[in-house]
Known about the structure:
By secondary structure, the chain is α/β, with parallel strands linked by helices.
Amino acid sequence: xxxxxxxxxxxxxxDRTPTERITAALPxxxxxxxxxxxxxxxxxxxxxxxxxxIDLTIAQGEFVSxxxxxxxxxxxxLRLIGDLTAPTAGSIEVNxxxxxxxxxxxxxxxxxxxxxxxDWRTVAKNIELPLEVMGFAREERQxxxxxxxxxxxxxxxxxxxxxxxxxxxxxxxxxxxxxAFDPKLLLMDEPFxxxxxxxxxxxxxxxxxxxxRTRTTVVFVTHSxxxxxxxxxxxxxxxxxxxxxAKIVDIDLPxxxxxxxxxxxxxxxxxxEVREALRRREGGEGQLAPPDADRIRAEGLA
Length: 302
């Protein structure tokens, strides 16, 4: 008797998305694996469900942006990956180990919206701080900080203090510090959100150049669709609270990217695709509320 069950075959290489082709070509190289993750703040009966049913795999060398309405859990998901808070459901692995173990092993660096630099330390000493804590010798710390200052194009500012730098320069120092111990994963929580538009675009270019040189895996939280599309290999669109993954958009813009990238027809098509995914999303609390819609328009999401 013939088995009526249809045969399911893997997609051919030409049918796969860019990310599927990366994963197929590099088996076992996923840096982040998130399975069935949920997060509730407070008690299950009276708490706030921030995230629900999150499944996501991030391959080595990817640049993945998380975007969605305010309160959808983007930053919470980033903090879960970094083991700054624990999930109430599901599991997270970083480099094949539990998130807590990865944190203890210093497998990732973090960059926040505020640079969080120490004003009494020089730029070089701020960059060297993680290495100092880890017990690196002075000569090795100085060599590494010199390399990173060159990477972020601040070679002439090693002896300056943070209060002597512009906001964009301070963020470059924060990025250099996060890269000091050569982490496999860089977590970035709206690092350019407080900058003016011109500085933000320049920082996007500089971050893209740093990523192209280091190929560190990046998870990046943003409210800006243009920023997400320009920087990413994939954009994860999240729904309103409780945050779920509404859509993942593969960004197939050619590398390296530069100022001309933002003028390409494909760039505008991808911006539109992400915008429409945000507009179509549905969450447990219903459609987008008017205040959130106003915020999205104000921040360039619509």
